[in-house]
Amino acid sequence: MIASHQRIRRRLIKAGVASLGFAFAHSSAYANADRVLIGTTPVFLDDQLGFLEAWREYLQARLNRPVGFVQRGSYREVADLLLEGSIDCAWLCGFPYVRFRQRLQLVVVPAFLGVPLYRSYMIVPVDQTQARSLIDMRGHSFAFSDPLSNSGFLVPRYTLWSNNIDPDRHFSRTLFTLSHKKVVEAVSVGLVDGGSVDGYVWETLAKTSPEQTRNTRVAWKSKTFGFPPIVASRRTSPGTIEVLRNVFLGMSEDDQGRSLLARLNLNGFVVCEDKLFDPIAQMMHALMKAGKLL
Fold first, then answer.
1. Which of 60, 137, 237, 243 is the most buried (most CB within 10 A)?
2. In order along the chain (294 residues), what is the average pLDDT of each group of 10 residues?
């Protein structure tokens, strides 16, 4: 088992390093004011770079402007690029969006199973039949995805705290994988006893790559929250935001756009009111007030 743990750690590290290559390949784009730069963290697709290239070609054909994807390994890194105006927009989690929303603008929200909502899942090994909630994970090792992930960190932390359980003392050991897919992998190979993931990611992997989820089971589901949105920097021009919004909204209206959406297991993009993300903000502020969130 120790050898297995070492192998998975090496794979997690290698995957994180590989994710930076796509960003470096587009570093020269920062000097091109006409280029639309879109930030993203590592996605769950096996052909990740191939998909982003196809999406880039689709978007720039409809924007009539060069498009580049700038990929980083964590939500914080992508958020920093948005806040400093180095990129125009990004596919970001709802947690960093509400944390910095005075400096960001909501563009569109993806629709999953027909609605712009998703859940946090707690997953455990498939043969672990006792755990039915986060409370049952007392004294066990646990994986989170990202410190700025709603489903992968904020929701489980708030759920424990709201049940009068100290989230800092509940687990025997915790780690961050910086990717929902890697949480699934860590639980699957036994590196940890459980983990919190984006329910959309787990369901999509179960649908498209069932071998990646077959050794895990969903032991608990949260209530629904606003789906991770596409957001823009306050420095992005209103004209660029409007054009981007229209292109994202139009993806469900043509064959090529629907094909790309199908690869993401999404129905399309919709316009939502900012209050969709208020429940995330309420959890964030409650934990901050309690001194359980930096």
1. 137
2. 40 38 38 80 88 97 96 96 97 98 97 98 96 97 98 98 98 97 97 98 97 98 98 95 97 98 98 98 98 92
pLDDT (0 to 100) of residue 42: 86
Beta carbons of 194 and 72 less than 8 angstroms apart? no
Domains and CATH numbers, the chain: 18-115+227-277 (3.40.190.10), 118-225+284-289 (3.40.190.10)
- Hey, what are 66's tokens? 């060069």
Tell me the C-alpha distance between 42 and 62, whole Å. Answer: 24
pLDDT of residue 2: 33
Q: What whole-number distance in Å separates Cα of residue 211 and Cα of residue 186?
A: 14
| DSSP string for 156-217 | HHHHHHHTT--TTTSSSEEEE-SSHHHHHHHHHTTSSSEEEEEHHHHHHHHHH-GGGTTTEE
**CA–CA separation, 23 vs 18, rounded Å?**
10
HSE, side-chain direction, 13 A CA sphere, residue 20: 8
- Pairing mode, if any, of strands 89-91 and 117-125? unpaired
Cβ-defined contacts of 257-264 (< 8 Å, 24+): 257/58, 260/51, 260/54, 260/55, 260/58, 263/45, 263/51, 264/45, 264/51, 264/110, 264/204
In three-state secondary structure terms, 112 is strand
